[in-house]
Amino acid sequence: MGEDDLRMVLIDGVLYVLGTKPLKGTATPWGRMQVTKDTAGGLLAQGVEDPSNVLSGFKGYPSTLVGTVDDVTTYRFAVPIEDYVASKGKSHLVEQGRESFGDTIHMDVSIDAANLPVKIVEVPLRVTTTYAEWGTPVTIKAPPRAKVTDLGP
């Protein structure tokens, strides 16, 4: 993992998040939150749980074709700042977001030939989410309780 990378694991409605450093204000490397469709964690979990939800989240927003390389097609979506901050569970930060980034957040969404997400780049924020090895069998275990801090809903 790189210096600012996060790893997310979804197990039985609980989203575990691992950073490269202990979470702010804690001594543990892992954080966890219960997820529902109405929580910020639930919005994150949608893409972890079902890759088609990642793509459906962009329906209705204007997009342009950026290009296709090695069977991976990239589209740039223009997402209104209000919708972007709401998707992060931070609706109260619309004005701050507008001051920092303007009225629109551009998202570059790359999908492969099977229509699965490969990468999403939140352009002005320089945040990249990379997806790999779809369909590969894995064994997922929750981290040890002593290494986890509850992050709330």
Question: Can you lay out the helices and strands and say which pair or pack?
Answer:
Blueprint lengths: L5 E6 L2 E6 L10 E5 L5 H10 L1 H6 L6 E7 L2 E9 H7 L6 H8 L2 E8 L5 E6 L4 E4 L17 E3 L3
Parallel strand pairs: 3-9
Antiparallel strand pairs: 1-2, 2-3, 4-5, 5-6, 6-7, 7-8
Helix pairs in contact: 3-4
Would you write up a description of this structure?
It is globular, with a radius of gyration of 16 Å. The strands form two sheets. It has a five-stranded antiparallel β-sheet. A four-stranded mixed β-sheet has the order 1-2-3-9, covered by helices on one side. The protein is built from four helices and nine strands. With 153 residues, the chain is α+β, with helices and mostly antiparallel strands. α3 (81-87) crosses α4. It has helices at residues 40-49, 51-56, 81-87, 94-101; strands at residues 6-11, 14-19, 30-34, 63-69, 72-80, 104-111, 117-122, 127-130, 148-150.
Summarize the structure.
This protein has 153 residues and is of the alpha+beta class.
List keywords for this structure.
153 residues, alpha+beta, 5-stranded antiparallel sheet, 9 strands, 35% strand
Radius of gyration: 16 Å
Decide which structural class fits the backbone.
alpha+beta
What are the segments in which pLDDT stays under 50 over at least 5 consecutive residues?
A: none
- Cα shape: globular
pLDDT averaged residue by residue = 78
Q: Could you give a short account of the major beta sheet?
A: 5 strands, antiparallel
Order of helices and strands: EEEHHEEHHEEEE
Our count of helices gives 4
What is the beta-strand fraction?
Answer: 35-45%
User: In what order do the strands lie side by side in the largest sheet?
Assistant: 4-5-6-7-8
Spatial gap, N to C terminus: 26 Å
